[in-house]
Amino acid sequence: MQTSIFWTRLKKHQQYLYISMLLIAVFFIGSSLITPKITSVTEDLIQDIIQGNLKSKENIVAFEFNQLNNSFKNSQKILQNSQNNSFEFLKEKLLFTSDLAIENHSIYNSFVSIDIPKRIRETHFSNKEDSLYQKEIDTFLKNIHFVEDEVVIDTIITKANNVINRKIYIKKLSNNNVVYTGYDVDLISFWSYFSEAYKGDGGYTVITNKDGICMLHPDTAYIGKKIDTYFSTISIEQILKSSLKINGYYVPNNINSLKDKAISEFLDLEVLRYFDTIKIGNTPLIVVVSFPVDIHLKETTKNLQGYFSWISFLAFTTFMLLLIASRLQLKKEYVENLKVVEEKEQLIYSNEKYQKENAILQLNQLKKKINPHFLFNSLNSLHVLIDLNPDLSQQFVLKLADVYRYLLDEREGNLISVKEEMSFLEQYIFLQEIRFNKSLHVTIKNNCDDTILVKKIPFLSLETLVENAIKHNEITKINPLMISVVIDEDFITIKNNYTPRKCKAKDSHHIGLTYLENTYQFYNISAFKTGVIDDEFVCILPFIT
């Protein structure tokens, strides 16, 4: 009832509804047109920011690692140009360069070792206090198999509490002397320096060597370990091939760097990873810069979202003002019509109550009518049957008792399950078929499973329709009455051949069909139908839920 009242009031103020819907439509259409443009501009801005940050980080990394490599590079130049200098002068320059190397706080120790044929190897250490380190280097150098004039060793060694990058350059001189010069870079110490010196935002940097072993990472637990997860979709070979070697430097082979989306184990966020290479001396390093996608998107779209939010707020405010004006007008009319609505509701309630009481009254009349009329016919049939077939007459009496027990049982309301009504109908048909012998044929067909049998129909509905067919149609051996009852998913169909009697029954007052119509009207079900179709009387009896 309240829904119908709402729609009635709404129709009187359709102009407010149309204006509101138009504003909403304009808002969403505008949003759908503006959003792609905002997204496109944002993506361009993000690309510019990322490319700028990427190149800046690559330059920083290249500068710092070159600083670490300067002493190594200087030692190489001294040894490669050794033919014009005396051995003592060469030794003095190498020792000076070695001592100068440890001025860098990330270089742990440096050494110069000279192997002269037929003499004991002479090794000089910049940090002379660490005897364990000296023994370790001596052992390391003894295990090197020197087969060429020049050897470069650049390896990563993991110790108990530290990770070092060991750089060694070996050169065989013209006088057959072999010179070893090198130093160890403390990667953990270097990370501490690097993280303090370059705290900037905009992504984090990871450095690996050409074997994928981590040399720099915000989480020190990864330093010195091989991080295969970074190269699961883009291999190290692809990254190295994407750069060209020009004048000793690695430069991009194309304009766009290699990139990939991944979930960062460090941040636990989706990041956009850019892969590139730099060259430190003769050694290529892989630079991986990860940019959190969500953070950059929020940073670059913050102002745009602010303007767009103001537009949305203005549209919403306009819509709300129109809606409030409409509601005030509707409320005014509602107060004026409230008494009329209450009176209508009272009339509808009274009508429903009348329909229910009328249906119950008609059911009682139907029972009273069935009792004497049906009993009289049944007793006549029994009288004839006693002499002809005593056994069948006993069944007849039992069925008749069951029928009257069903009619006399007290029930709340006027609904019954399909299963109970069908059971009663079978007993009633048994009595009627004995009465009319072969002139009456009734078939019952169930097209559904047993769950349908618990659904409800009006009490005595099936018996009423079968009795009406018997009462109003000619029944002879030549022209027998054929009745079919078919149970479907939503309703029961009762059909009989339509051969109306020439003399209508005097006691027919259509109580049965009127009772059924009133019952279905009370439950607001309009699917109950009766009519003659193709020489058949058809009744559709829907289930009541």
Number of separate strands:
19
The CATH class assignment of the domain at 389-542 is Alpha Beta
Strand order of the largest sheet: 2-1-5-4-3
Beta-strand residue percentage: 15-25%
Query: What's the assembly state of these chains?
Result: single chain
The CATH superfamily of the domain at 389-542 is identified as Histidine kinase-like ATPase, C-terminal domain
Q: Which architecture of the domain at 389-542 per CATH?
A: 2-Layer Sandwich
Residue stretches low in confidence (pLDDT < 50, at least 5 long) are none
What name does the CATH topology of the domain at 389-542 carry? Heat Shock Protein 90
Q: Report Rg.
A: 51 Å
Average pLDDT over all residues: 80
Helix content: 40-55%
Structural class, from helix and strand content?
Answer: alpha+beta
- Along the chain, the helix and strand elements come as HHHEEHEEEHEEHEEEEEHHEHEEHEEHEE
Q: Largest beta sheet, briefly?
A: 5 strands, antiparallel
Total count of helical runs of at least 4 residues: 11
- Which term fits the overall shape? elongated
User: What is the CA–CA distance across the termini?
Assistant: 20 Å
Architecture overview:
The chain is elongated. It has helices at 2-12, 14-80, 87-101, 131-142, 187-197, 236-241, 293-388, 390-408, 418-436, 461-472, 511-522; strands at 107-115, 122-125, 150-158, 163-172, 178-186, 204-208, 214-216, 243-246, 249-252, 258-263, 270-280, 283-292, 415-417, 440-446, 456-458, 481-487, 491-497, 529-533, 536-542. The strands form five sheets. The chain has a five-stranded antiparallel β-sheet with strand order 2-1-5-4-3, with helices on both faces. A five-stranded antiparallel β-sheet has the order 7-6-12-11-10. It is 51% helix and 23% strand. It starts with a helix and ends with a strand. The chain is of the alpha+beta class and 545 residues long. The model has no long low-confidence stretch (mean pLDDT 80). The chain has a domain at 389-542: Heat Shock Protein 90 (2-Layer Sandwich). This is Signal transduction histidine kinase internal region domain-containing protein. InterPro entries: Bact_2-comp_sensor_kinase, Sig_transdc_His_kin_internal.
